[in-house]
Amino acid sequence: MSQQKVHIEKAQNFMRQYRDPESRELKKLSANQFMDVWSHYDRDGNGYIEGTELDGFLKEFVSSANATDLGPESLTDEMLVELKACFMEAYDDNQDGKIDIRELAQLLPMEENFLLLFRFDNPLESSVEFMKIWREYDSDNSGYIEADELKNFLRDLLKEAKKINDVSEDKLIEYTDTMLRVFDANKDGRLQLSEMAKLLPVKENFLCRQVFKGAAKLTKEDIEKVFSLYDRDNNGAIENEELRGFLKDLLELVKKDYDAQDLNEFEETILRGVGYDKDGKISRKELTMILLALAKQPPEDEQ
User: What is the Cα–Cα distance from 98 to 94, expressed in whole angstroms?
Assistant: First the structure.
């Protein structure tokens, strides 16, 4: 009878299987095990553990540490509120009230090499850098990062972290498969722009600041800051990857899921709207027109 109870408890508490039966410490998770934990708690598959999902994870995470088979219900509501506050302060880096895949990766012990793929010591300064990386790894110019291109990206990422000698080809394939399972939201076996943007985050989308949402008057200094953020080579114009990085940030304000085709169409619409002179560049004057239009238009407006 007691044996049956243990089996039931194991089925109820997903985290218990990852703890050492003697020490109760969490074991190191492989890439696939980490993905299993993520998929189990991110029930709606929206890329976050939040609300009741987060409550369920915290209850099971804590109760799985008990040597006795206490159920998650042994954690009172008051204890949960206090636990959640401490937990979010420690792990919710961007303070959005939910846990994303990168934040969970900090919490759980994992294979060192796999963990490195979530740890960027220097987040990208802007989407200009992101678009340069995109161009480099989308080697067939398909507008997507396919599995073999993603594997090349992960290999280089680990090489940069000085760990390449520890990673076999089989492990790289496992990591690639796992990263696709995590970030390929529409499950088409490849990463589109918006999916790769979650894997390779930019420090801040400057255009999300309140000043561009009509909350304050746009100053010359604001416009100059934006211009210098995207004009990375300081040649007085926003062009090539600079232009695509700027447009990617603009597109993110109105569209959550987007691909290279969306970016191209958006580019045509925006540039036609400012009387773009087709020289492949945006001048300060043209940028000013776009930002003034943006400041008057709420981000939800998808026009």
Answer: 9
